[in-house]
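Dear colleagues,

I hope this message finds you well. In preparation for our joint manuscript, I am sending the Small ribosomal subunit protein bS20 (Cytophaga hutchinsonii) sequence together with its predicted structure, so that both groups work from identical material. I would be grateful if you could confirm receipt.
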Amino acid sequence: MANHKSALKRIRANRAKYLRNRYQMKTTRTFVKRLRASTVKADANELYKKVSGMLDKLAKRNIIHKNNAANKKSKLAKFVNKLAA
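The corresponding structure tokens are as follows:
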């Protein structure tokens, strides 16, 4: 166990950040699953806009790497474009 006051504070802060990051990742994953499950192009386009923003936000906050976000957005865009109108 940590002995210093600052170390104890870091433990608390890291735990809070971990929980926040986990929540944001889980929410994004859920929306990605919804997007992949959609069959109507109009709905998929709306969801894609939302998911794209979520991925960008995760990358901006260093929760995921920016290239990881770009790859996911690219694959999702391909998926949406393949859907029949």
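For the figure legend, we might mention the following. DSSP finds three helices and no strands in the chain. The mean pLDDT is 95.

With kind regards,
E.M.
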